[in-house]
Amino acid sequence: MFTEEELKDMEGFKRVSDFIEVKCGCTSKKYGDTVGKLRVFTNGQFLISCNCTPACDAEKLTPFDFEKHSGKEGTRKWKNHIWVVMNNKKVPLWRTVLMKYYKHASNGANGLSNLQARRLFHRDEFISCSRCKKERRFRLRTEEECRIYHDASNARRWRCDNWPYDKITCEDDEERASRKSCRGCPRSPTCKEPIATPTPVIECGTYTRRCNPPTPPPKCTIYSRSCNIP
Q1: Which end of the chain is less packed: N or C, by CB atoms within 10 Å?
Q2: What is the pLDDT of residue 217?
């Protein structure tokens, strides 16, 4: 699989019968370094166990999930953002020999293909403040994030100080137009297609934008976005 010469400079290197293990990490401007152990299996699968805190029990994370778990800001480019330590320097994965053994088919989530696994969420959406009219970004990656967005979109007077991610006010700058064009779509960073495909992919069990509290709304089904890309 790998020779000792190829891996000897990687910190935390350990060889087991069906995988090799090295120290890895991902750096966030807000949270700093999140350190873990990357295991590269003989079938090409990459799995990471997180060691960010003694209480963290996140194991068997895909590189994509580990990057998200670390709180890394911006676009999802785990091959650039996840690093290993070689000769006391952080080296991105794409510059190492490890990527020679990465196989997309072996890294699909729950039996889904890599493309399908990455499409199980909405793109980012924006809500305007009722006071200053500035638009604030909402991520829709998980059930909890969907619930937060649905509640905010149904609020009659949503304000900047209700934004769930950081403490902000109407005095804080709005995202630049060039940054707002990146909506987190896994197929096209600048996807502008607002129409959902007719095939439901997962159920979030939260509110829809059409619900009218206090009447309990039905379950909401999340749809993947259509990017019109061949």
Answers
A1: C
A2: 39
